[in-house]
Fold:
Amino acid sequence: MYIPSHIAKTYSEAGAAKTKFSAMKTFVLAVFAGMFIAIGAFGSQVALVDAGGESFSRFISAFVFPIGLFLVVMTGAELFTGNNLMVISVLDKKITVKAMLKNWVIAYLGNFVGSIFVAVLVTYGHAYSLFGGKLAQTAVTVAQNKVSLSFSDALFKGILCNMLVCIAVLVSLSAEEVAGKILGLYLPILMFVLSGFEHSVANMFFIPAGFFVSGEYNIGADSLTWSGFLLHNLIPVTIGNMIGGACIVGLGYGFLYLNHGKEKQ
Structure:
């Protein structure tokens, strides 16, 4: 297992490598990341239906969701929330702030496209027909709950979420074997889903899917509006994710562990 200082240096190099990609390659990798997170999110909704009591169903849903991040990490896809850790590369003087922000913008847009793409496929491919329509109702309910959050609730839950996501990415770098990487990223992601924290890229799937399902299955959802999606969820959650991932974990981890060697323990 690698020690924290080695992990910080490893990520610093990885973050620098991300800026070497062309804009198109970064965008395509980001589309894939959005698709993977959306697939994990859809699977978590399937698991949520008829799984038993509320606590147990939440646990099963949280157990399935991390598959999306596993696919992102293992395939080298570009995920905006994980890439908030590129602050470490900036602190290590491997990249400029401008290069980091360029990556974030492209990754964010690509993630949105990938998430919407999967939302369209599962809705109009009628994957939500499972469980006699209960899954469709779940999708709409989830979306309504997310756009009903206050700005501060969405912000704070976004902070907590990406603290765990970025810790998951870093912990996965502590292992050399795939099994260790899976376990390292799995537990923090399970915790954020179980706790109901807010992930901007996952919400790029959850909320549009709720819109699409509402129309396709004739499920009333008056509280679902695109302005509500942006103002009550996506904007505050994105800001929160950046605070949690870049400002707290990225800056904190970089400050503590850069320039301390590459020892193994």
Summary: DSSP finds twelve helices and no strands in the chain. Residues 226-257 form the longest helix (32 residues). The CA atoms of residues 5 and 152 lie 34 Å apart. Confidence is low (pLDDT under 50) at residues 261-265.
